[in-house]
Amino acid sequence: MADCMALHHSGRVGAVPPACPSVPPLRPDLDLYPGARDKTCQPTWILHDPVRNKFFSLGWLEFELLKRWSSQDPQSIVERVNRETTLDASIEDIVTLNSFLSGNQLTRVEDQTGASALHRSSLSGKSKFLTLILHRYLFFFIPLVHPDRFLSRTLPLVRPLFSAGFRKLLVGVTLLGLYLAMRQWTTFIHTFEQFFSFEGLLYFVLALTASKCMHEFGHAYTAKLYGLHVPTMGVAFLVMWPFLYTDTTESWKLASRRERMAIGIAGMFAELCLAAFATLLWSFLTDGTFRNAVFFLATASWVMTLAININPFMRWDGYYLLSDLLGVQNMQTRAFAVARWRLREWLFGFGNPPPDIFSKRMRRTLTAYSYATWLYRLILFLGIALLVYHFFFKALGIVLMTVELLWFIGRPIYSEFKEWRQRRTSFSWNRNTVGTVTVTATLLMLLVIPWDHYITAPAVLQPEQHKTFYAPVPARLQQAHVSLNQVVATGQLLFDLRSPELEFEVAKAGNQIRLYQTKLARQGSTDLLERRELVQQELRKALVVYRGSVEQMSQLQIKAPFAGELVMIADSLTPGRWVSNTLPLATLVDKRSLGVQVYVTEDQLYRVQSDAPAEFFPENPRLKSLRVRVAEIDRASTTSLTEPVLASRYGGPVRVRETSSEALVPRGALYRVRMTILDPQAAPSDSILRGVVKIKGESESWLQRIWRRIGAVLIRESGF
To answer: Where in the sequence is the domain holding 674, given as residue range(s)?
Structure first.
């Protein structure tokens, strides 16, 4: 359904039009219908152009002028209106109405001058080829059928669906269907898993098609119920995504706003009816293909109706419902004009009158609606730009995305700035302009001045020398020579283990070595001489096994590789206990080698300099901060996080992903920065402590940061 252009008496706002010596006659094919009363309870009329199927809303004054238009004498028309009605008409009203009629090609052309003007208007109204392409690839219609005759013949069959009895039946079906679905809620919810299969996707497309067909027939039959003509039904494409449409423009012939709203809401009502009956039917079906199809029919109808059709920011059903509810015809165009006027007054205080006559409350409503619509369209067009970029191959995607950003986002902004530039002679210093300049200067200062001097990154305080001890093989503890928190020296014996199995392997390998050496010593036999090479090979294998076993046996004597403190010892390490090679026996740390490991992102790395001062803030707020300094910066990104305490899997701030090797792989590029503590005596006694580091880095403004991120994206996406 298209908007209805409005021309109402507006109190002669703006400049006085030029004089009009005579008025051209109206086209004889125009139709005039009574309309709904406006907000001031004055009558309105609807002028219909059947050639272009366009509708125009006229106020009381315009109607009275048109009633007397046939005299073609402006002065005579004004005098008759003032004499025969309570209205106060003037020549200015005649000029304004004549300009409106001529501009919309509603007058009859009777001379060469008028024909030439009409030809120029026709040429200027044609879209340029490039503009046409830009609009067509994003949004275009394809009419498929002319359903008016079919709708007229089948209307008696569907007329009972508009009765009060059917509405009562629908309420009962909806309540019963929801009640039965709640009884099987777990099964109902689990059916959503079918969405993630090819069969589920097929069901969803079919269900969506069926519900949209019901939606459009709901509009069409409701329009026929009120005696309107439905010229076409077809398919439209929004960024190559198809959806059905029905031409119900003739609903503007209806004087009742309630009837127009009924046509607008009929599509959503039809979908909800379909969803209600499908929900009830689902409860009575057995598991299988048909039940899944009915489930998709029910859910697709509810979701699509609420998510799309009720949206008032695009010209779907929700927009026309809101337009009729507010009683504002051609709502978006008029609301945008009010919002632009309000914005200019806020910024510059021109003192211009509003472009339309609305109450203060309505102006606030339309202004809020306009700003919400602009924000919605900004997000929508950015999403479409990304969609066309990823949908097509890269070269074409870049072109289409650029066109989308420049044409649908940049062009309106440029047009508004152009309007401000044209009005620069009207600028004057007032409260609004002073506020605008102050706010603009403040924003520029916030963007340009490098306020950000510090870099904040996740960090962990831990000893650089630390080791956890394990038994090399499953073994039996002979003696534990240390205790918890004991300070040990380098090479000091910690645990004495014994492995009978390993001792057996050593003895077995020793016996094999002696056997093979004996065989090699007996060189008198010709047969043994031929097998000498094989015996030597077996001897070498036995020696390898023996040396490996002896090496493992030596590791059963666990000694401290460096001096430090034992901060953890396993419980119940009594002599004779068997320990596995996966049990951590103890952890030794050198608290004198405490350091801080920091992980910075790729866009922070270039700001970190060697020897830069920093401060470590422990996660525990009761602990004091530590002064640290940058010691070493990795120039290659970290492939695996070696500090599990920082991983998100264990409650840390660094997001990691799962891998088959159970390695902690960061999501995104991270670079490790090693830091030394300037005052080790002030370090807390905790061996491992999580926190954040604040590094004094290269100063950066918000504008630099934004530009660098844009550049990084452009460089990343520039490869073909």
So the answer is: 592-700
